[in-house]
Amino acid sequence: MANVGNQLPTQAVSKPPSGKHGNVLPLWGNEKTMNLNPMILTNVLSSPYFKVQLYELKTYHEVVDEIYFKVTHIEPWEKGSRKTAGQTGMCGGVRGVGTGGIVSTAFCLLYKLFTLKLTRKQLMGLITHTDSPYIRALGFMYIRYTQPPTDLLDWYDGFLDDEEMPIVQQVNW
User: Fold this and answer.
1) Where is there biased composition of kind Polar residues (predicted)?
2) Would you give the DSSP letter of residue 24?
3) CB 77 within 8 A of CB 103
4) What is the DSSP letter of 143?
5) Measured over all CA atoms, what is the biggest interatomic distance in the chain, rounded to whole angstroms?
6) Residues 6+ apart with CB under 8 A from 132
7) Residues 60, 121: contact at Cβ < 8 Å?
């Protein structure tokens, strides 16, 4: 984000190539952090799963297979790994502030997808995938974190009635 004089900060947006859509996706926001919560990103980058197992995966198809076999929920933290007892105010598990936990496989894979710099065709492949609702969910999460807010409805339109989409029980981001 840039802050010039007394102007409000602006979001960096990389523009897609000319043409109706092109295969290159625009990127909204921070080009390094994927707009993830700093605590989640720190835990992803320091995760042995991300640094060792996911480092070995080099292709889109390998990552999609990993999602299929390893993702069992789409919350940011592994169940029971985040301690928020005794915290009050903003640190009481609200808005993702507080002590971290073990970052979920889903969020490690979400960031791995980001490092691959998905194309429009690959992202469409995720959100239309028929083998797993988690593959589709991570595709929609990728859209949520990386695409310009003005484009979100265009991406989500036609998918809002997906009955197989996983339900998030509680999210403390």
Assistant:
1) 1-13
2) B
3) yes
4) H
5) 54
6) 67, 68, 71
7) no
Indicate the domain borders of the chain: 38-79+100-157
13-14 vs 27-28, strand pairing mode: antiparallel
Q: Give the CA count within 13 Å in the CB-facing half-sphere of 86.
A: 3
pTM to 2 decimal places: 0.75
Q: What whole-number distance in Å separates Cα of residue 79 and Cα of residue 7?
A: 42
Strands, E assignment, 88-167: none
Nearest by Cα to 122 from 149, 143, 92, 108: 143
In whole angstroms, give the CA distance from residue 111 to residue 72: 17
Q: What is the pLDDT of residues 51-90, one digit of tens each?
A: 999 999 999 999 999 999 999 999 999 987 776 555 444 4
**CA-wise closest residue to 39 among 116, 1, 86, 93:** 93
Whether the CB-CB separation of 36 and 30 falls below 8 Å is answered with no
CA 164 to chain CA centroid, Å, is 19
Dist. CA 33–CA 15, nearest whole Å? 18
Q: Residue 113: in which H helix or E strand, if any?
A: helix 105-115
